[in-house]
User: Which sequence fits this backbone?
């Protein structure tokens, strides 16, 4: 039977409940732990308390599962995640894979496609890093202004790992969404195993692109919900995101829409911005009511936040 890999072990899909499919419990730039101020960046009790409270609030708002897509080198901390999940009661699904090239450590950047395919498969089927905790999805990303050879290679590796395991792929780098689709399809991946993320990034809105991706069978991520503060590249009013989601529902893509915040529980040592003000519960406390005011029904909300994740996460 298909099951979901969480940081506390396998889970039946019916136990997922309301799920946010694109979040970051922790987010960092590789190398922070070697700085003199490392302890200032990450004081475990203080960080745990903050994220723990965020998860409890998410749970109180009706949430049940968080998918963390931080990946290798940018904050993923399996033991920390397991403690947060155990004590909060919120299921946490972690990922294998990487973000864009500039956050990939040289140790991994210097290796070939076979190494990365095997790495992803191992983390999905045996355990992430030196743990026996299995990843639940594959994260793969590309830069905003280019699609580098390393990034393209990793898309191919992610596709091969997905075909071997059945695991879903979650992308980053929406400016190259058509290239993402093309690269993954070239490896024979089923579009129904792929979430094309960040379609609601303010700098790259294109509903016709989204509809074409939907017609191809991909899942469509509107997952920057709550990012409204000026100065953030993908920021825009959530009111506009409501309009995008409503339009895509009317266009017939209800069963392919993904909703999430893409917020950070704690940002570790980032010089350009700190931890966002909006937390995981924003999706349920603020955005869902706005969708319903715009005419989206409770049944449609249930499909996007409960039924669709049940199709994506098991493998």
Assistant:
């Amino acid at each position: 039977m298909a099951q979901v890999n969480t940081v506390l072990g396998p889970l039946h899909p019916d136990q997922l409940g309301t799920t946010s499919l694109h979040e970051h419990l922790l987010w960092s730039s590789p190398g922070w732990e070697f700085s003199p101020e490392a302890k200032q960046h990450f004081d475990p009790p203080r960080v745990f308390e903050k994220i723990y409270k965020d998860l409890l609030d998410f749970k109180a708002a009706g949430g049940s599962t968080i998918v963390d897509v931080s990946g290798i080198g940018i904050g993923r901390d399996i033991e920390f995640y397991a403690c947060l999940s155990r004590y909060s009661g919120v299921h946490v699904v972690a990922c294998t894979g990487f973000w864009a090239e500039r956050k990939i450590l040289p140790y991994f950047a210097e290796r070939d496609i076979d190494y990365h395919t095997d790495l992803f498969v191992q983390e999905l089927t045996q355990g992430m890093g030196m743990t026996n905790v299995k990843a639940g999805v594959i994260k793969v990303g590309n830069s905003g202004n280019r699609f580098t050879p390393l990034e393209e290679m990793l898309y191919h590796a992610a596709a091969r790992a997905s075909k071997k395991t059945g695991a879903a792929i979650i992308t980053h780098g929406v400016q190259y969404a058509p290239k993402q689709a093309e690269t993954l399809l070239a490896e024979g991946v089923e579009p129904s195993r792929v979430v094309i993320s960040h379609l609601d990034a303010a700098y790259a809105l294109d509903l016709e692109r989204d509809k074409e991706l939907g017609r191809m069978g991909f899942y469509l991520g509107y997952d920057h919900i709550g990012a409204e503060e000026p100065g953030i590249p993908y920021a825009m009013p959530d009111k506009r995101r409501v309009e995008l989601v409503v339009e895509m529902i009317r266009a017939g893509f209800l069963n392919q829409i993904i909703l999430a915040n893409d917020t950070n529980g704690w940002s570790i040592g980032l010089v350009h911005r700190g931890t966002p003000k909006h937390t995981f519960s924003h999706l349920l406390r603020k955005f869902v009511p706005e969708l319903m005011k715009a005419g989206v029904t409770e049944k449609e909300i249930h499909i996007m936040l409960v039924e669709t994740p049940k199709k994506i996460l098991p493998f």
The chain has one domain: 4-33+42-312. The first strand starts at residue 4 and ends at 6. The chain is about 40% helix and 15% strand. The CA atoms of residues 52 and 84 lie 6 Å apart.
